[in-house]
Amino acid sequence: LGGGDRPGFGLTEKEHIDIILGKRGLGGFDSLKEQKWIDMQPDFEAAHFINGFGHPDGKFRFRPDWSGQAAPNRPPRSMGLFGPVERLPEFPDHVELIEAADEAHPFRLTTSPARNFLNSTFAETPVSKQKEGRPVLLLHPEDAAGLGLADGGRVEVGNQRGELVLHAKFFDGIQRGVVIAEGIWPNSAHERGEGINVLTGADAPAPYGGAALHDNKVWLRKPQELSA
Fold first, then answer.
1. Predicted pLDDT of residue 151
2. 3 state SS for the chain
3. What's this model's pTM, rounded to 2 decimal places?
4. What pLDDT does 108 receive?
5. What is the rounded CA–CA span in Å between residue 172 and residue 141?
6. Cα–chain-centroid distance for residue 20?
């Protein structure tokens, strides 16, 4: 790639750690190995804001500046703000910005990480795939009964973005009206070759963007039987 002359390439892990700690005046790898940890707790006055907060007047701000405040995730100013900024409250509070369930989409879908998949990096490793089995949809048995779904049977899940087929897995530890598709499985692991992100939105939350992948309304139904 032509980047071998750049700082950091060709260094060992130990050398990287020495550089990182050294720039902060925190010693190096050997001292960290001996001490086991580094105490980064601020002094009492700083930790308890005895001398004020991080503003010129030292006062705490209850009213956020949604459009002008500095934030580590703020995109370049040329990109502007994202999402329905005008609906954000004057003071920090709950605001109804989620994709709420409705008559046509009575279930809330969350795409939580599977226990054996840290993220998509491990979704195709043999051991993780063996432990997880296959893509499933966790749902309450009473919700399933009302739809005529069987435990282990196929269930079609959809919304205005698309639909896919999973296998139902009954779980009475979940709230009624909520379904969980643990992942993230690759598209190829699904019956129709399309994965769970067919159902998730790409809407950027206000004010600076990010991911809102757990706000999804869906419908469930018993799919047509596969032809022989």
1. 97
2. CCCCCCCCCCCCHHHHHHHHHHHCCCCCHHHHHHHCCCCCCCCHHHHCCCCCCCCCCCCCCCCCCCCCCCCCCCCCHHHCCCCCHHHCCCCCCCCCCCCCCCCCCCEEEECCECCCCCCHHHCCCHHHHHHHCCCEEEECHHHHHHHCCCCCCEEEEEECCEEEEEEEEECCCCCCCEEECCECCCHHHCCCCCCHHHCCCCCCCCCCCCCCCCCEEEEEECCCCCCC
3. 0.73
4. 96
5. 6
6. 28
Instruction: Give the chain's residues under pLDDT 70.
Output: 1, 213, 226-228
Cα 69 to Cα 88: distance, rounded to the nearest angstrom = 14
How far is the first Cα of the chain from the last one, in angstroms, to the nearest whole number? 50
Nearest CA among 144, 158, 179 for reference residue 104: 158
Residue with tokens 């809407």: 203
Whole-number pLDDT of residue 226: 61
Q: How far apart are CA 194 and CA 213, in angstroms?
A: 17
> Please, what CATH class does the domain formed by 107-221 belong to?
mainly beta
CB–CB of 170/135 below 8 Å?
no
pLDDT of residue 194: 93
What are the structural domain ranges in the chain?
10-65, 107-221
